[in-house]
Design a protein that fits this description.
Pfam families: HTH_IclR (PF09339), IclR_C (PF01614). With 273 residues, this protein is an alpha+beta fold. The chain has helices at 31-46, 52-58, 63-76, 92-104, 107-122, 164-172, 175-184, 194-206, 253-268; strands at 13-14, 29-30, 79-81, 88-90, 125-131, 136-142, 209-212, 219-227, 233-242. It is elongated and about 65 Å long.
Length: 273
Amino acid sequence: MMRMHTLPPDHHATDSTAGDDGPLRRPRGIQSIEVGGQLLKALARAGRALPLKELARAAGMGAAKAHPYLVSFGKLGLVEQDPVSGHYGLGPLALQLGLIGLQQVDPVRLAVAELPALARTLGCTVSAAVWGPVGPIIVHVELAPTPVHVAMRHGMPASLRHTGTGKIFAAFGEPQAVAAALAREGEAEALRDPAFAEELAAIRREGLSRVRDELLPGISALAVPVFDGFGRVVLALAAIAPSALLDLRAEGAQAQALIAAGRRLTQRLGTGG
């Protein structure tokens, strides 16, 4: 005799398919997975192991409701419970999935998709640069929407000492690699220059590099870092324009829009929530 099984209230499927004549609805899903997933989201946001009551509260449910989900997640390796404190943290499978996700994310592809809207918002030319074999290299340029353009092209190196892009890598990059690249630029003593050291310290504090009329007279730049899930700088986003068209104030609308773009990309690469 065939037995019929029913699901508890939290375990029913969310039917989001479309009928022949009915309106289009979202794809069908399992509500219990969506409910339990709030616990994983809460752990990810917290960034640390949490006691049951605190974790349940962060996920918007009671402890009695949360516990069975955590037991199942524990069997899968998505969470694990500390045997001493009893706190719940992300398990080995969750960590493996996170690492695989980081490996699959291409920061340049994400930045390229971001740049057209950023150029329109800022009203100036924007670029993305990575650390290449010998230093910062511009990998993509999105021209300003106005007739006033700044001559830039893909593949151009960026001076670590004199460009907004370069100074981002000088401030946040691996010190030995930065020192070697500066030496290749003929700036072997740059890191011993108190003024340059203070400028890099200010960039680290503000998360923003500002250059006025430094490499080219009449041209200014803003730049921000983008970090991966391990906290390493992987990109520099820069805005470049005639000095009269670029507001270098950190609280200015252009700087704030650039900072926000850098943070969005950083979050997509696995840092922050």
